[in-house]
Amino acid sequence: MPKKRQALVEFEDVLGACNAVNYAADNQIYIAGHPAFVNYSTSQKISRPGDSDDSRSVNSVLLFTILNPIYSITTDVLYTICNPCGPVQRIVIFRKNGVQAMVEFDSVQSAQ
To answer: Per the domain annotation, does 100 fall within a domain?
Structure first.
């Protein structure tokens, strides 16, 4: 929802969502220097194109989207960021629409 300047965040459980809303009620949250407002959604789950209703696809590849990078994004930079989480198998960077990268870990557990 980038053109609406809104975002959806799905928590593991309702308690996590409650904690986020309660924290934001007492503390101003800023994103990129702009105040952010945190509210409950009317939806219980974020629908993603191609997802089945009963489960999300789990794999060892993460997609990174870097908006307005200050520094050059290279495979070395991404490796340095990701490797502490688990062994990185490969990294691919796309620069067509901004900067996106796919990082493949050795296992689903490392990617999580």
So the answer is: yes
